[in-house]
Amino acid sequence: MYNLLLVGLNHRTAKVDIRQRASFKAEQLPEELLRLSGRPGIKEAMIVSTCNRVEILTRVESHEEASSTVRDFLSEYSGIEAPQLESSLYRYDDEQAVRHVFRVACSLDSMILGEPQILGQLKSCYTTAVDAQTVGSFLNSLLQSAFRIAKRIRSETSIGEYPVSVSSAAVELVRKIFGDLQKKSILIVGAGKMGEAAVNHLAAIGAVALYVTNRSPEAARDLAEKFNGIAVPFEELNAWIGRVDIVITSTAATDMLINRSMVERVMHDRKGAPIAFIDISVPRNIDPGIGKIDNVFCYDIDDLGAVVEANQHERVKAAATAEKIIEQEVQTFCKRAKSPDVGPVVRQVQGHIEDICKNELERYLRKTGAMEPKQIQELEAMIARIAGKIAHPLVVQLRSEQGSQNESAAYMDLIKRTFKPKDAE
After folding, report:
1. Model confidence, pTM
2. Residue 1: pLDDT above 60?
3. 32 neighbors 25 (Cβ within 8 angstroms)
C-alpha cells in the first residue's frame, strides 16, 4: 500500500472567505512545505493553492494520524478553528486521491469545466515542492502521470475547444465573422473585469490593434497598458466607432451609449464596410436595432449566453470521454504502484546469468591456453549476448506480470529463490 492522502477544500465545499484565509501565497509555500514535511508521519508533501482550491497532497505512514496532522497544520496556518475548517474539508485516500489529482489536472474538477489554467497552476506548485525537496519518487511519479494524462485529454477530446465564458464567447463570435483578428482593429468600451477579460482573450489569439475607452481616463490607460493597447478619449466614442472593425462594450452605464442613428452615420462614412458590435453589458449599452443595418453584426448578452450554454453542453459530452480515459489511467497507475519493486530482482537475475556465463568462459580459456586478445574479446561479446538472450524473457515477464497481487508476489519469490546469490545458499 502506498499510503497517499489528500485533504483539501474548493469552490464547492468552502465559501470565498474561507478559501481566501486558507490560501497560501507563492512566496510562503517553500517554508510551509518544509514545516509540513517535518511533522511526524509525513513522508512526502505538496501544497496546491489557487483562488478556487487549497489541497494538501501527502504520502504518509498512517492515513488516520496524518489526516489529523494535515488538518491541524491547515488550521494553524489559516487561523480557522478546526471545527469550522472541518466542515469545508474533503479527504481522499490512495486510489481516490490518485483519481482526484488526475481529474484536477484535466480540469474536470474546475469551476469552469475544461479551463486550461489549472494545469499551469498545478505545475507551478509541483515545481515549488520539488525545489523544496518535499516531493519524493512516489509523488513525482504521480504528478508526472497527471501532466501526461492532461495532455492526452486535450489531444483526444474537445474539452477545451468550446468557449464557456461570456468574454471568450464574444471573441469567438467575432472570429467567426472576420477570421484572423490580427488584421482587425478592436475598440473595448469599459475597463472593468468583463472588459479586461475580453482584452485578455483577444491578446491571447494575437489581436494587436486594441483600443480602450472608459469614462475614467486612468482606468482606460491602465487596461490599455497591460496589453500594449491604446487608450482613447471617451468623448470621442462616435469617431472611434467609425475607425475600428469590432466594438465590444462592457460598462455599468444605464443608458444606451450606441444608438441606431449613430451607427447609420458611421456606416455612411465607412461606405458600408462591415462592423461587429458585441454588447456584454447589463443593462444594454447598444441599441439592438442596429443589427438591422446592412453589414452591421450585433450580439448581446442573451446571444452570448446561448453560445455559452451550447458550448458547455459540448464540454460535458467531452468530459464523459475524459472520465473514461482517466479511470483507465487510475487503474494502470494504482496497479503499478501496488506491484512489488522488481528492480533488485531484475538485477539479481541478470547478474546470476552473467556470472554463470563468465565462469564458463574462464574455464574454457584455462583449458585452451593462451589466445589472442581479439579472440578473447569476441568470445566475451558472444557470452554477453547469450546471457542477455537468456535473461530477456525472464526480465520481460517480471516487468509485465499481470496476475493478482498474491500471484505476482509468489512469482517474484520463485524467481528470487531460483536465482539467489551463491553466498546466500
Report:
1. 0.64
2. no
3. no
